[in-house]
Amino acid sequence: MNQLPFYIDLIFVLSTVLTIYLFFSASNNNLKLLMIIAAWMLIISVVALTGFFKVTNTIPPRLLFLIALPLIGIASMFVTAKGRSFIESVDVKTLTILHSIRIAIEMVLFWLFVNKLMPQLMTFEGRNFDLFSGVTAPLVYYFGFVRNKLGARTILAWNFVCLAILIFTVSNAILSAPTPFQRFAFDQPTIAVLYFPFVWLPGVVVPLVIFSHLIAIHSLMKDIRHKNNPSSPLIINQVA
To answer: Rounded CA gap, 140 and 118, in Å?
Structure first.
């Protein structure tokens, strides 16, 4: 990989750490969760340093394991009693401000594009609209949870929109990576995520952001159902 300016790696690492810290805080400082994330980060870091992900002609692409395995773990949380209990204990207010980290991630993606490790379409100059999520997150946090000016339905709609943007962005990343399924960006494919520490983007940051949206959507929908039917269970400490 091209030698990058030090600040790119630094800002990306700090952004990843901050994402994990905010999710950890939202989960009531769940140490078990933190240990699982740390172990997964260590595993994919070591694997990336061996050059495993640089082999891009396999089917299925090795890159997919970075995001597929965490997503399987996330899905399992919604289908088990312990998982659902954890989900309903997480603070949606903190999860909302977590999404502001996407501003820093968008800057990193742009710098990676400048250094020919990411296609332009993966930046805010191309097809990546994730900056919207990062910029609006503090506003939703402030007006939705501090000032109580936004209702649960508005916050729910925001989560759906931002999740859709993220899924679209991830799809573009997969289809622009140098794998047998590549469909565009052949002149400058998405290759940064094949290397350490940027494997943390699809392997850690993206799954945590997706999980944050899914938790918020689940909790907000349950709160809305409770308001419409007071006899249904209420998830407390989520939305005023």
So the answer is: 30
Q: What is the pTM of this model?
A: 0.93
- Crossing angle of helices 31-49 and 6-26, in 10° steps, is 150
Among 8, 97, 48, smallest CA distance to 202 is for 48
How far CA 126 is from CA of 11, 49, 131, 189, in Å, comes to 22, 30, 11, 13
Residues ≥6 apart with Cβ < 8 Å to 181:
61, 174, 175
Closest alpha carbon to 102 in 197, 237, 227, 208: 208
The three-class DSSP label of residue 145 is helix
How is the chain split into domains, by residue range?
6-228
Residues 29 and 43: their CA atoms lie apart, in Å, by 22
DSSP 126: T
For the stretch 198-230, pLDDT in tens is 999 999 999 999 999 999 999 999 989 877 776
User: Rounded to whole angstroms, how far apart are CA atoms 208 and 52?
Assistant: 23
C-alpha 53/C-alpha 177 separation (Å) is 11
Q: What is the CA radius of gyration of the chain?
A: 18
Please give the structure tokens belonging to residue 60.
Answer: 């299925």
